Amino acid sequence: MYNLRLSVIVILCVAFIGYSCQSDQSSKTTVIQNIKGYTFYDGDLIQFGVLEFKDGKVVDVYGDTTFTADASTKVIDGEGKVMLPGLIDAHAHVMGLGTMLMNIDLMGIKSLDSALTHIEKYASKNPDLKWIEGRGWNNTHWGDGDFPTAEDLDDVVSDRPVWLSRVDGHAGWANSKAMEMAGITAETEAPEGGKIIRDENGEPTGVFIDEAEQLIASHIPEPTDEEQQMALKNALQQMRSKGLTSVHDAGISEDTWDLYKKFADEGKLSTRIYAMIGGAGDTFDKLGKNGPITSYADDLLALRSVKIYGDGALGSRGAAMLEPYSDDPDNTGLLFHTQEEMNQMVLKTMANEFQTNIHAIGDAANRQVLNAFENAKDSLGEQGLRNRVEHAQIVSQQDIPRFNELNIIASMQPTHATSDMNMAEDRVGPERIKGGYAWKTFVNQGTTLASGSDFPVEHVNPFYGLYSAVTRQDHQGNPDGGWYPSESLNREQALRSFTLDAAYAAHQEDMLGSLEPGKWADFILVDRDYFEVPENEIWQTKVLQTWMGGEKVYSADE
């Protein structure tokens, strides 16, 4: 793994430090030595012992050697710690994470009764809140898996409206007060692309799927500027503490872009954000009117892509399927658009030279999206935009090769598999599941795999995703041997999908994703060797330090 060429370079640099390896005496070079580092270098994974950087960018990495400090060099003893390139989350929701940290967090709660207790305590501690909001409930982990009801919520909070987003963000749970304020009755019709869950008498039960969520959510007061800034501060703290030096934000508004620029201009952005414009409508017309922004504030921000939704989620049975759900034979899920509508949106965004990234979970949605990309290729030719399917969760086996034929990136989230494995095969059956969460199949055929978490749908910690990618098990080691283990990645493949290939998926592989000369010095120091610890320890990895652009932005000791 050691690169012999590097050993020659380091000998020269040690001999002539401050001269031949430093052309600008006015700017200090920083060296971190006595480390056990891993990075991709010229495409291959290598191990190194020293990192040198200057002006925020990597000079080079070297073998196991010792630098002699002079006045122009700052030498830091890495104390034998493990160094990795900064991790990149290729699909996340930054403001969603920050907002969740300010509201009720129902992630991981295993029963309806526990969730209600949590909600009741939160409401009692926050008597001045006009709306009780939160996120993270997952009914598939609650006994029989039935949806909760407004009556359940009324038992703990009845004096104020309550609105709680499901873990995947594709369903919401309201109490009776919220439905009353929104004017919801048995006569209320669901909008196209949405569904209202009803009882046997046709009365709304309190759960709203996909586009129907707006029937309630549109009545919630907009957050103040101060609340938005606090949400972003919260999200940034979480991201840097977990070793994320870059994230791809899957769908932003005009106000959010302005907030990101404000933080970047003020030096407050501690994680790089590759932003996707939310949809191909009015927001795109405003934010995209001057074309893609490939870099803002020294690569802290980029705005050169668009996020479009194709369908809902598997857990709420909103993912669009070619055939009915195996556990709900009258339901095929929800396509948000007709094929012609999808074609027109893709043509619009691609014609304006924006990378187009489309949420598709069910096999029908994935086919529709691939058809739209094929139509655009026929109309516009090869544009090199590196378009992506976000999630690519359940794909017909005959459609998987089309990702290669159309040069589409598979942007997938390993923790979705380990979160969904309790219900996924029930939803789609033993045959369709063979095209589900099929990371290894995509990698083996040469498709670029960019991994992320979809936080706050899943936990923000990227080591949870690395663990899921390698083991396909939960944190207790279940199931034995992994869930459909033939789709597991090896550790190198998993790390690459969270670093170099994630950078490629953002057109940023020349500046991010590895510790190579000329790239930003984005890296982390961790408490264990990702490549050598037992698999069941990967998710327990703790980040000790996070550096972005050669500046330390997080230390576990501070």
Structure explained in plain terms:
- It is globular and about 80 Å long.
- Helix 4 (150-154) links the parallel strand 10 and strand 11.
- It has 18 helices and 25 strands.
- Helix 13 (414-420) crosses helix 16.
- Strands 8, 15, 16, 17, 18, 19, 20, 21 and 22 form a 9-stranded mixed β-sheet that branches.
- The model is unreliable at 1-26 (pLDDT under 50).
- The chain has 558 residues and is α/β, with parallel strands linked by helices.
- Among the domains are: 4-80, Urease, subunit C, domain 1, CATH 2.30.40; 98-217, Roll (Diaminopimelate Epimerase, Chain A, domain 1).
Question: What is the CATH class of the domain at 98-217?
Answer: Alpha Beta
The CATH topology of the domain at 98-217: Diaminopimelate Epimerase, Chain A, domain 1
Shape: globular
Number of strands: 25
Main beta-sheet annotation = 9 strands, mixed
Strand content: 15-25%
What are the low-pLDDT stretches, counting only 5+ consecutive residues below 50? 1-26
Secondary structure category: alpha/beta
Average pLDDT, rounded to a whole number, is: 93
Helix content: 25-40%
CATH architecture of the domain at 98-217: Roll
Number of helices: 18
Return Rg in Å. Answer: 24 Å
Separation, N- and C-terminal Cα atoms? 34 Å
List strands and helices in order, with pairings.
Layout: H1 4-15, E1 29-33, E2 36-41, E3 44-48, E4 50-54, E5 57-62, E6 73-77, E7 82-85, E8 87-92, H2 94-100, E9 104-105, H3 112-125, E10 132-137, H4 150-154, E11 162-166, E12 171-174, H5 176-181, E13 194-198, E14 204-210, H6 214-217, H7 225-241, E15 244-252, H8 254-265, E16 272-278, H9 282-287, E17 293-296, E18 301-309, H10 339-351, E19 355-360, H11 363-380, E20 388-391, H12 400-405, E21 409-412, H13 414-420, H14 424-432, H15 439-444, E22 449-451, H16 462-471, H17 491-497, H18 500-504, E23 523-526, E24 543-548, E25 551-555
Parallel strand pairs: 1-6, 2-7, 8-15, 9-10, 10-11, 15-16, 16-18, 18-19, 19-20, 20-21, 21-22
Antiparallel strand pairs: 1-4, 2-3, 4-5, 7-23, 11-12, 12-14, 13-14, 17-18, 23-24, 24-25
